[in-house]
Each structure stands twice: as structure tokens, then as C-alpha cells.
Hints:
Helices cover 34% and strands 16% of the residues. It is of the alpha/beta class. The longest helix is centred in the middle third of the chain and has 18 residues, at 131-148. The radius of gyration is 18 Å and the shape is globular.
Amino acid sequence: MSDVEISIIVPLKNEAECVGELAREITEVMSAMPHTWECIWVNDGSTDGTLEVLLALQAHEPHFRVLDLERNYGQSGALVTGLRAARGAILATLDGDGQNDPHDFPKLLARLAHGDVDMVNGVRVARRDTWVRRMSSRIANAVRNWFLRDGVSDTGCAIRVFRRACAEHLPLFKGTHRFLPALAVMRGFRITELPVNHRPRTKGMTKYGVGNRLWVGLADLYAVCWMRRRLVYPVVKAEYPPPGA
């Protein structure tokens, strides 16, 4: 492992208009903290010039790394790719559309530093979305919680911080990003929530709507329920001879 303490992962698709301001905010926030850090931008098959903007930013900011996927794999594929490439002991995520506020990172990291939890999830207490999106999200969260009992009230909030162990051996499917907390709870990790800022989208276009989330969300929920019953994560108690002997 390198000396990077915190890795921030940002999946992106067609966010050329948003990424410059988001990059400025991340640099501003993290440069004021006493941690070594990196930000991994994962370009998920953008066609609008996002990659060119990222490369221009990376050329002037040594904390930035850019991963350019060969095609569009979806948000989960981009996110897990970034998590696997991360070097930090603490991992952090947020969306690339500017609606998550990087200024929330210090309080999330401070809560994680207490040592009694492994993951701190953001909760959008004042959502800046349409009424339809807010209501559909509320229903989806209620249904998911009824089945999974993970105690997470806003699984759609992408800003969170967690220990590296939470991301190890993650099963990768197209809905992984929506179930990160549930998958962590399944493995015995401790999670909590904190209220975070939520900003209106001012640039670019949303990639999700009710139509393209409802049915796939139900299928993903069934899959996670199945995994909760069937997946196992063996832990090696000892190795003989010991490594390095």
C-alpha cells in the first residue's frame, strides 16, 4: 500500500459541464484536511468531452487519477472499478453530477474516526429533486428496508465514507452501487447515517428516471436477498508456515 490515506471515487458519464467545478470543490476541501488523498475519476464511456476535461484537470493536479473505461459499463461497473484501483485505507464516494456536496466529507470522516462504525452514509434531508423522484425514492427505500433490514434510510445517496475492508470481495452486478450499505451489513460491518447537503442539478442531464429504475431495482433487490442467504466470506484464521517465515 502507498501512503494515501483517503481515496475518493467519482464515476462519470457525460458530465463535462459539471466536472470542473466539482474538481475545484474536492481539491479545496481535501487540501484543508490533514490527510494524504487521491481522487479517482472513472470515465464510463462518455461521449461529450468529459475525458478531455478530466485529462486537462489531471495534468495540473497530482492528486487526481483518471481511469478511462473502454465502453459504458454503468454506474456500478465504474464505481467498483474505481474502488478496486483505490490505494487509500479510507474510501469515499460521490456522484459526478454536482448534487452531492464535497464539503460534507469532513464531518463524515470525523464520524468514521470515532472507531465504532465502518461506514457512514449520507442522508439527503432536504432533497432538491422533483416531487416524482422524491416520492419514488421514498417508496423504494421503504420496500428495500422491509426486505433487507439494513437500517439505511437513503440508499440512493451516493456520498459516503467507509473503511477499505467494506469494499473487499464486492459482488459486481449492475445495481451494486445502490446496495453498498446492505452488502456491508451482510458481512457484519457497522454502519450509521448523517444528514448531508443536496443540491439541485444545474448542468447536464439526469441519467435516471422512474421508468429505468423501478423494475431493475426490484430485480436487484431479489438478487441481494438471494445473496444474503447464499454468499459466504471465509476468513483464514492462520497459515502454516506463517508468511515470511
